[in-house]
């Protein structure tokens, strides 16, 4: 393997044997293959790619596409059925919740156990322990059995170990979604730091924006095979377009949007009741008029509250969608280099389009507040309000473009 390659995967496949009943597994072992008592499930099918040292690569795909299986093989916790994997350097992996922890051991004991697995001496872990405990910030729970930890504590300790063992390759599998917003910001900042030091990072996230903004390249897995590899923006856009097309083909758009709205309402209610660590929230989003003409002014007011003294790198975005959830336009204050209040208190922002070029139709507005250039979402409101555009100019499409006609002969 070339010296500038961190990971090389060739023709990698993983096939699981699925048994309907426990006794079928026993029958299979006794009959030594003369009859099959199992079904085969192909989690990975002939996957090949290379990752250069220092690259940050996102891995995206629907649930069941093979993302976690691939990362487990790269981390060495799972054996492939066929194909080869070459990994150049020490790997630290943050996989599914609590993996690599002994639930009966204390947090402190698990720190040292994980260090030993990675070949780090006790003396070296002694020097690193305070930094690990400080980043995890779980207080006296560091000396309690991890079986008593909440999911957030698991992630805090696991991530803190992974980033403090000087790994050449860091693998993060969706685990950050469990942590609270403050911890997500802390983790993203730390990953930026180790990325700048040249660490190779493999990053699985269901957030397309996180992958686009944080990763150099991306790999799209679909049903165990690579659908596309390329720049992170290109891959995420293709993947999200595919999801939209799939929804339209199945005639389930209305049901999907309705369910999404219900789920988000439930999540927001749960967070309001249980998460005492909310750093900011969107209070309201309104438009000055619900019915406007093409080329009229559109004004959107967004009111939000910040509960911290200050939220660094704070930004606000407003997106306009068509009635089929087709994304039309979505600027934010970070991209437009506009400073907005980021200190404690309630603030109102006005977003104005002086002459909206949209043609007749119904449109919806999404609003979100983020930090770290959009990497971490603090609060997001989908279809929070709508407006109708009316026009006497009859034509097809979404927007009116300035144009001219002339006779040339």
UniProtKB/TrEMBL annotation:
Highest rank taxon of the organism: Bacteria
Chain ranges of the ABC transporter domain: 7-248
Keywords recorded for this protein, A-Z: ATP-binding, Nucleotide-binding, Translocase, Transport
Molecular function via GO: ABC-type transporter activity; ATP binding; ATP hydrolysis activity
A Pfam family of this chain: ABC_tran
PROSITE patterns attached to this UniProt entry: ABC_TRANSPORTER_2 (PS50893)
Gene3D superfamilies xrefs: abc- transporter (atp binding component) like domain (2.70.50.60), P-loop containing nucleotide triphosphate hydrolases (3.40.50.300)
A GO cellular-component term linked to this record: membrane
Cited SUPFAM superfamilies: P-loop containing nucleoside triphosphate hydrolases (SSF52540)
Family indicated by similarity: Belongs to the ABC transporter superfamily.
Name of this chain's protein: Wzt
Organism name: Geobacillus stearothermophilus
Gene, per the UniProt record: wzt
């Amino acid at each position: 393997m070339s010296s500038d390659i961190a990971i090389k995967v060739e023709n990698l496949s993983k096939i699981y044997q699925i048994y309907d009943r426990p006794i079928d597994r026993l029958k299979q072992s006794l009959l030594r293959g003369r009859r099959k008592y199992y079904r085969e499930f192909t989690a990975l099918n002939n996957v090949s790619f290379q990752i250069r040292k220092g690259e940050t690569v996102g891995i995206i795909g629907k649930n069941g596409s093979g993302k976690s299986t691939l990362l487990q093989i790269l981390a060495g916790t799972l054996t492939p059925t066929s194909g080869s994997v070459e990994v150049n350097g020490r790997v630290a992996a943050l996989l599914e919740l609590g993996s690599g922890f002994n639930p009966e051991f204390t947090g402190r004991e698990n720190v040292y156990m994980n260090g030993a697995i990675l070949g780090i001496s006790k003396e070296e872990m002694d020097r690193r322990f305070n930094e690990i405990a400080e980043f995890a910030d779980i207080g006296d729970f560091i000396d309690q059995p991890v079986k008593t930890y909440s999911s957030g504590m698991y992630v805090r300790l696991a991530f803190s170990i992974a980033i403090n063992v000087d790994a050449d390759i860091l693998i993060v599998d969706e685990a950050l979604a469990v942590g609270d917003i403050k911890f997500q910001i802390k983790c993203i900042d730390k990953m930026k730091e180790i990325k700048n030091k040249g660490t190779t990072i493999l990053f699985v996230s269901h957030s397309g924006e996180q992958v686009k903004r944080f990763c150099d390249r991306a790999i799209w897995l679909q049903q165990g095979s690579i659908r596309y590899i390329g720049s992170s923006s290109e891959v995420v856009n293709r993947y999200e377009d595919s999801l939209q097309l799939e929804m339209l083909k199945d005639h389930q758009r209305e049901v999907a949007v309705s369910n999404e709205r219900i789920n988000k309402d439930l999540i927001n209610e749960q967070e309001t009741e249980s998460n005492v660590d909310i750093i900011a929230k969107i209070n309201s989003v309104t438009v000055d008029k619900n019915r406007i003409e093409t080329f009229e002014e559109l004004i959107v007011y967004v009111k939000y509250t910040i509960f911290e003294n200050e939220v660094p790198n704070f930004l606000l975005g407003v997106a306009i969608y068509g009635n089929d959830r087709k994304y039309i336009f979505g600027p934010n204050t970070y991209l437009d280099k506009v400073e907005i209040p980021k200190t404690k208190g309630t603030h109102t922002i006005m977003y104005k389009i002086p002459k909206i070029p949209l043609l007749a139709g119904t449109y919806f507005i999404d609003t979100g507040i983020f930090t770290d250039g959009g990497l971490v979402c603090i609060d997001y409101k989908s279809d929070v309000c709508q407006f109708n555009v009316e026009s006497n100019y009859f034509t097809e499409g979404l927007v009116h473009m300035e144009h001219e006609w002339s006779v040339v002969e």
